[in-house]
Design a protein that fits this description.
This protein is an alpha/beta fold. The chain has helices at residues 16-24, 79-95, 111-123, 135-148, 173-186, 200-215, 231-239, 257-266, 285-288, 304-317, 325-341, 349-352, and strands at 44-45, 56-59, 63-69, 72-73, 76-78, 100-106, 128-130, 152-154, 166-168, 191-197, 219-226, 247-249, 275-278, 297-300, 358-360, 363-367, 373-375, 378-383, 386-391. The chain folds into 2 domains: 13-171 and 304-369, Response regulator (Rossmann fold), CATH 3.40.50; 173-300 and 379-391, Response regulator (Rossmann fold, 3-Layer(aba) Sandwich), CATH 3.40.50.2300. Helices cover 35% and strands 21% of the residues. Helix 1 crosses helix 11, helix 3 (111-123) packs parallel to helix 4 (135-148) and helix 5 runs parallel beside helix 6 (200-215). Residues 62-385 form the Leucine-binding protein domain.
C-alpha cells in the first residue's frame, strides 16, 4: 500500500487554532486509483515497540469527533497509524483539550474495520468523522456516516471516494499538476511531452496534465507510457521530438527515479535542454541528488511547515512523525477550532467548504463542495541535493 501528502501557512505551536479559526472570519499511494503515494508504506511492527496504539479517547471537550485510523494491520501495529494518533494528541495539547473529545478508533486497515469503527464513533456521539486513510476504507466509513448525516474529512488521495460532505484533506495529484503546469506556462513553456509509468497514480496525473495544459493553451506533443524497466524506450521516443518540446512532465515515484534519470542521461535529456517537471513525490533525497534532474521543477508544499511540526512532535514523543501525520494534526486542529468558534453550525457544509479556507501545518487549504481540496503549493527547483523555492506557496487562495 502507498500513502498520502502535505500543507503550509504557518501554524506554530499554540498559534495553530488561532490561525485556523481566524481564517474562517469573512474578511488544509494503491487502492482503486491513486492511493496515497507520498510516503512510506504502512509497516506492521511488533506491539512492544509501539505501546499505547489502541482505541481510546483524547481530550475532554463537549463536542465529540471520531478519528478512524489504521492502528493495526494484520497481526501487528501500524507505525503510520500510531504516528497519526500521536499527531492528534499533539494538536489537542497545543490547542487545549477542552473544546472536543476525539474518539480514536482502529479500522484494522480494512473496509469492514472502517465500517465498524465509524459506527462505533457515531454511536458514542461523534458529530464529525476524521479519516480513514485508505480509499476502500473511506468508502466504507462514508457509507455509515452518510446514513447518520455526519460529515467526513478523510485522508485518502483517491478523488473517486468524494461526494457531498465527504471531503479529502490529503495531497491530491491534481493539485500538484495544476500548480506545476500553471508555473511552467507563466515561464513561457508552450509544448510539453509526458513520460509516465503505467500505474494508477500516473493515470490520474496524465489526465490532470491534459486538462491543465488545455486550460493554459499548452500543446501536449506526446505521451509515452512505460512499464517497470522500460523507461529507456520511452526516453528515446521523447528525445526524438527534439526542439518540438520545451518541457517534459514525469509523474514518477522517488524510488523509480534513478532508473528514469539514467534513461534521460542516455538519451541526452536534462533540465538544461528541456525543462523537466514533476510532482510532490520528488521531494525526496533519492531524487534531489540525481544529476539529470538538477534544475527540474516540481510542485510541493514548502518544507518549513512540516519541519516545525516535526520538531514539536519529536519533543513530545521522542521519535519522528510519518509524513502523513500532519493530516491528523490539521484535521483535529480544525475540528477543535470550529467547535470553539462556530457554535451549532460548526461542521456544516457552509463552514467546512468556506471559500476563505484554513491554515494548516503544511499551508493554506480549502475544501471544495465536491469533496476535493485546493492547497497553497510552492514550486521547488532541484539544486545539488536540496531544493530552492522558485515560486513561493500563496498565503491565501485566489478567489477567497
Amino acid at each position: 500500500m502507498r500513502l498520502s501528502r502535505d500543507f503550509l501557512l504557518r501554524i506554530v505551536g499554540c498559534c495553530a487554532l488561532a490561525a485556523l479559526s481566524g481564517c474562517l472570519n469573512p474578511g488544509f499511494g494503491p487502492s482503486t486509483r491513486a492511493e496515497e503515494p507520498l510516503n512510506a508504506p504502512v509497516t506492521p511492527v511488533q506491539s512492544s515497540a509501539l505501546p499505547g496504539a489502541a482505541n481510546g479517547v483524547i481530550g475532554s471537550g463537549p463536542v465529540k469527533v471520531g478519528l478512524i485510523l489504521p492502528l493495526t494491520q494484520g497481526a501487528g501495529q501500524s507505525a503510520v497509524g500510531l504516528s497519526m494518533r500521536n499527531a492528534a494528541e499533539l494538536a489537542l495539547s497545543e490547542a487545549g483539550a477542552s473544546d472536543i473529545t476525539v474518539l480514536v478508533k482502529d479500522d484494522r486497515s480494512t473496509p469492514d474495520g472502517a465500517r465498524e469503527a465509524t459506527q462505533a464513533a457515531i454511536n458514542e456521539g461523534a458529530e464529525l468523522i476524521l479519516g480513514p486513510l485508505f480509499a476502500a476504507d473511506v468508502r466504507a466509513a462514508a457509507e455509515v456516516a452518510r446514513g447518520a448525516g455526519k460529515p467526513v474529512i478523510a485522508f485518502s488521495t483517491d478523488m473517486s471516494v468524494t461526494s457531498r460532505n465527504v471531503y479529502l484533506l490529503s495531497f491530491l495529484v491534481e493539485s500538484y499538476v495544476d500548480r506545476i503546469v500553471d508555473y511552467a506556462a507563466s515561464r513561457g513553456k508552450k509544448s510539453i511531452a509526458v513520460m509516465a509509468p503505467e500505474n494508477d497514480y500516473a493515470n490520474v496525473a496524465v489526465g490532470a496534465l491534459q486538462t491543465s495544459a488545455a486550460r493554459r493553451d499548452m500543446r501536449v506533443a506526446a505521451i509515452e507510457r512505460y512499464r517497470a524497466g522500460g523507461a529507456a524506450g520511452a526516453a528515446s521516443k521523447i528525445a526524438a521530438l527534439g526542439d518540438q518540446i520545451d518541457a517534459l512532465f514525469i509523474p514518477e515515484q522517488a524510488s523509480a527515479m534513478p532508473e528514469v534519470a539514467r534513461a534521460l542521461t542516455a538519451n541526452g535529456l536534462d533540465a538544461r535542454k528541456v525543462q523537466i517537471l514533476g510532482t510532490g513525490l520528488w521531494n525526496d533525497s533519492r531524487v534531489l541528488s540525481l544529476p539529470a534532474l538538477q534544475g527540474a521543477w516540481f510542485a510541493s508544499p514548502e518544507n518549513a511547515g512540516f519541519v516545525a511540526f516535526a520538531q514539536r512532535y519529536r519533543a513530545k514523543f521522542g521519535s519522528d512523525p510519518t509524513r502523513v501525520a500532519t493530516l491528523a494534526y490539521d484535521s483535529v486542529s480544525l475540528a477543535a477550532a470550529l467547535a470553539r468558534t462556530q457554535g451549532a453550525r460548526r461542521f456544516s457544509e457552509e463552514v467546512l467548504a468556506a471559500s476563505t479556507g484554513f491554515n494548516g501545518a503544511d499551508g493554506v487549504f480549502r475544501f471544495k463542495p465536491d469533496g476535493g481540496n485546493e492547497r497553497g503549493l510552492a514550486v521547488l527547483q532541484v539544486n545539488n541535493g536540496s531544493t530552492v523555492v522558485v515560486s513561493p506557496a500563496p498565503r491565501s487562495l485566489s478567489g477567497a
